[in-house]
């Protein structure tokens, strides 16, 4: 017994001495800590504490007690060195953690904010920053350190399954929105992981596909938004994309991660992988040497691989130390390191008000023949509310980007809160069906479709009979039909079921509009989708169309605010709405994953061609993505980039466009000449001289949103365009070049609605 006590005491003293000798991490002694770390500790730090690389205690992997249930990933802790673990949480539309914890009665809901495609359509960077602040605050109060977002990929094609998580088809607005979001989140002492760097433009075969893109398109379209955001907001972390770019996995591309991101743009944070684990075809030394610092979510094998690579001389210890140093610099910034005690009680009510307002600003009024805003209590008392999504409104997308929200305000509730009743019979039919369908959905869960299980799936539509519609015409003042679309990670959208309307939806719109119109009653369509859909074949049937997106948990209230005129719509499209999906040049090279699921790579059909797997996607359209294509090649659209209606009208004064030092300054007075208060979005597109390069007809180079202007009120809007922003990427010179000559500045209300044209010679 005595002997045993002596041994234990000696062991205890030895451990204490060992720990005492080790420096404790602080922002001033990082190099000392790196020196004190063993190779194994270093390797462990570069591998997330995910699936099976957790701290080993008594031979068993143990999850740190601080782990936040539902968080996406964690970095490991080393008590010997005073290094805590840090917590990473999805995602772009709110903090994605589990709302329920075992053995606890309380809930941990997070606010569901509008999806990124909706936020971008606000064109309001101050508002997006406010959303970021609220999101950052929730992450902090729930004990997290990094939000895995914003999503900054480009909407190359409307069929990409994750477009709702990304802002726009245009890199300038993407960069501006990304900057605002990152500044907002990071103002709370919470980091971001802007993702997915780079060219993650499709979900089909996303973990392997080689995105083959010219250097010019890479720079001008796919990287420029990231560049703007990195330069203007200094994100703590960047997430590398799953896919390959021109033959090299993004996570192991030294060109992307070191040459461009760090050396050119000055990024000084950490790069982490997307959630992939071990790649059999990618030696770990290539990743670390490329500038990737953190393997997520982390596999034990990766730790061994790093150790072996160093011991066998394949990986320089200097490369490891560089990544370890970056990791420690990141860790000292985190709340977990600073010892913050999260309240677990963020102010969800205050954040609900933010999401309600930001959603109304992102909604885009596509059509209005004068029926909106509704005169509640006068011409509009009772509405016949059609469409399953009216009753099961989609607040956000599915997959990692979903949020476990406390509630979703559906259209029924939103209208009711605004004093608008709905007809009893139809409401009863739909609400009963929705209750039933939700129960059925739970029972039919497909275990392989885990990503669809995260978030709110879309329920199937129901057949509404003519008799029922005719009955509704008698009892309602008007009809509202909600058309919903759900999308998410791992699956792209299809032409037939996602982009186009189904026969059932078409028939519903036709029959409802015939019946209501013949009784002289209007029909309004609400689009509840995070992505673009077809509208031209049916839009004549509707008196008004409101694009509500997936606007977050307050969705029904936000829609009602716009319908009733409480909020004057000021959203403008941040992506082209084409007539047909085939009108996009990129559709020719967008794999359509009709019969693919994530686990079985079956056959793909791409424009009639059968392709086995998606080994590569050729970006034949180059820089002609979105409006750059439609505008340059004079292709008609359903609704052009920058488009959106208002309940009022704005007049622009003749703008002044002049050079001020190294900047072009565009200044214009906007006057509200209508009858209602409202906000206007001024957009400046530029036509640049060719300078030996093929150039798009116009490119968005500046925008500004006015404050809410009362009827008759004016605002002077001044926008600054740094001369360097006018540059195009010249592949032969491998440089950004501002061509000398005459530039045309279009001060516009949308890409097709040019109000004034000015020219300026630039050297
Ligand atoms: C997604 C990322 C996400 C990560 C963690 C991946 O599948 O691509 O966007 O942040 O999972 O949930």
Describe this structure in words.
- The protein has 763 residues and is of the alpha/beta class.
- It folds into three domains: 26-338, Alpha-Beta Barrel (TIM Barrel); 349-578, Rossmann fold (3-Layer(aba) Sandwich); 648-762, Immunoglobulins (Immunoglobulin-like, Sandwich), CATH 2.60.40.
- It is built from 22 helices and 30 strands.
- The strands form eight sheets. The protein has a six-stranded mixed beta sheet with strand order 3-4-5-6-8-11. A six-stranded mixed beta sheet has the order 12-17-16-15-13-14, with helices on both faces. Strands 10-9-7-20 form a four-stranded mixed beta sheet, with no helix packed on it.
- A hairpin with a 4-residue loop joins strand 27 and strand 28.
- Helix 5 crosses helix 6, helix 5 (125-141) packs antiparallel against helix 13 (348-362) and helix 15 (411-417) packs across helix 21 (555-563).
- The longest helix has 20 residues, at 2-21.
Task: List strands and helices in order, with pairings.
Layout: H1 2-21, H2 30-36, H3 39-45, E1 55-57, E2 60-62, E3 73-75, E4 86-90, H4 116-120, H5 125-141, E5 146-148, H6 171-186, E6 191-197, E7 210-212, H7 215-233, E8 237-240, E9 244-245, E10 248-249, H8 254-264, E11 270-272, H9 284-290, H10 300-311, H11 317-331, H12 335-338, H13 348-362, E12 364-368, E13 382-386, H14 388-391, H15 411-417, E14 421-422, H16 424-443, H17 450-453, H18 466-475, E15 478-484, H19 495-499, H20 503-518, E16 523-528, E17 544-547, H21 555-563, E18 603-606, E19 609-612, E20 616-618, H22 627-632, E21 650-652, E22 656-660, E23 663-672, E24 681-687, E25 699-705, E26 714-722, E27 728-730, E28 735-737, E29 741-750, E30 753-762
Bound molecules: beta-D-glucopyranose (BGC).
């Amino acid at each position: 017994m005595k002997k045993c006590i002596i041994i234990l005491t000696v062991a205890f003293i030895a451990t204490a001495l060992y720990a005492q000798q080790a420096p404790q991490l602080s922002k001033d002694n990082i190099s000392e800590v790196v020196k004190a770390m063993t190779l194994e500790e270093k390797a462990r730090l570069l591998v997330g504490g995910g699936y099976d690389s957790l701290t080993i205690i008594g031979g068993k992997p143990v999850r740190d007690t601080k782990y936040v249930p539902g968080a996406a990933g964690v970095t490991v802790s080393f008590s010997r060195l005073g290094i805590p673990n840090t917590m990473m949480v999805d995602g772009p539309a709110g903090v994605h953690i589990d709302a329920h914890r075992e053995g606890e009665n309380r809930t941990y809901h997070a606010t569901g904010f509008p999806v990124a495609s909706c936020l971008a359509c606000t064109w309001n960077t101050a508002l997006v920053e406010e959303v970021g602040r609220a999101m950052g605050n929730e992450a902090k109060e729930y004990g997290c350190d990094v939000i895995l977002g914003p999503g900054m990929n480009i909407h190359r094609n409307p069929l990409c399954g994750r477009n709702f998580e990304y802002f726009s088809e245009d890199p300038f607005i993407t960069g501006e929105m990304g900057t605002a979001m990152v500044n907002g989140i990071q103002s709370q002492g919470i980091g971001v992981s802007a993702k997915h760097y780079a060219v993650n433009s499709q979900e089909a075969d996303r973990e392997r596909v080689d995105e083959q893109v010219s250097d010019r398109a890479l720079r001008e379209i796919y990287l420029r938004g990231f560049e703007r955001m990195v330069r203007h907001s200094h994100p703590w972390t960047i997430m590398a994309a799953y896919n390959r770019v021109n033959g090299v996995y993004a996570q192991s591309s030294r060109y992307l991660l070191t040459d461009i991101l760090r050396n050119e743009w000055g990024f000084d944070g950490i790069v982490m992988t997307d959630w992939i684990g071990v790649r059999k075809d990618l030696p770990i030394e290539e990743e670390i040497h490329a500038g990737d610092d953190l393997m997520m979510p982390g596999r034990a094998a990766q730790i061994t691989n790093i150790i072996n690579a160093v011991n066998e001389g394949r990986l320089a210890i200097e490369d490891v130390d560089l990544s370890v140093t970056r990791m420690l610099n990141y860790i000292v910034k985190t709340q977990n390191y600073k010892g913050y005690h999260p309240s677990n009680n963020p102010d969800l009510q205050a954040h609900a008000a933010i999401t309600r307002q930001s959603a109304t600003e992102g909604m885009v009024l596509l059509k209005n023949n004068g029926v909106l805003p509704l005169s509640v209590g006068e011409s509009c008392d009772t509405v016949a509310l059609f469409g399953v999504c009216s009753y099961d409104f989609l607040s956000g997308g599915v997959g990692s980007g979903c949020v476990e929200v406390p509630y979703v305000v559906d259209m029924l509730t939103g209208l009711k809160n605004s004093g608008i009743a709905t007809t009893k019979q139809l409401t009863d039919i739909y609400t009963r069906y929705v209750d039933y369908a939700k129960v059925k959905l739970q029972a039919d869960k497909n275990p392989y479709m885990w990503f669809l299980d995260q978030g709110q799936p879309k329920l199937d539509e129901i057949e509404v009979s003519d008799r029922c519609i005719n009955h509704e015409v008698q009892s309602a003042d008007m009809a509202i039909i909600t058309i919903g679309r759900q999308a998410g990670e791992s699956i792209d959208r299809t032409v037939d079921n996602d982009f186009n309307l189904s026969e059932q939806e078409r028939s519903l719109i036709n029959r409802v509009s015939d019946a209501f119109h013949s009784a002289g009653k209007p029909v309004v369509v609400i689009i509840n989708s995070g992505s673009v859909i077809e509208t031209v074949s049916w839009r004549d049937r509707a008196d008004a169309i409101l694009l509500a997106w997936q606007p977050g948990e307050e969705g029904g209230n936000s829609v009602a605010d716009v319908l009733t005129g409480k909020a004057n719509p000021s959203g403008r499209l941040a992506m082209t709405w084409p007539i047909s999906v085939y009108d996009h040049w990129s559709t020719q090279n967008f794999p359509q994953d009709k019969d693919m699921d994530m686990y079985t790579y079956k056959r793909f059909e791409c424009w009639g061609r059968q392709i086995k797997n998606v080994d590569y996607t050729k970006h034949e359209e180059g820089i002609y993505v979105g409006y750059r294509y439609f505008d340059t090649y004079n292709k008609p659209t359903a609704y052009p980039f920058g488009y959106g209606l208002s309940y009022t009208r704005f007049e622009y004064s003749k703008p002044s466009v002049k050079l001020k030092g190294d900047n072009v300054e565009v200044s214009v007075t906007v006057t509200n000449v209508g009858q209602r208060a409202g906000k206007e979005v001024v957009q400046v597109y530029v036509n640049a001289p060719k300078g030996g390069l093929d150039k798009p007809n116009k490119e968005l180079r500046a925008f500004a949103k006015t404050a809410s202007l009362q009827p008759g009120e004016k605002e002077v809007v001044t926008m600054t365009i740094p001369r360097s922003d006018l540059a195009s990427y010249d592949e032969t010179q491998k440089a950004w070049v501002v061509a000398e000559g005459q530039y045309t500045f279009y001060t516009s209300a949308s890409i097709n609605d040019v109000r004034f044209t000015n020219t300026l010679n630039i050297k």
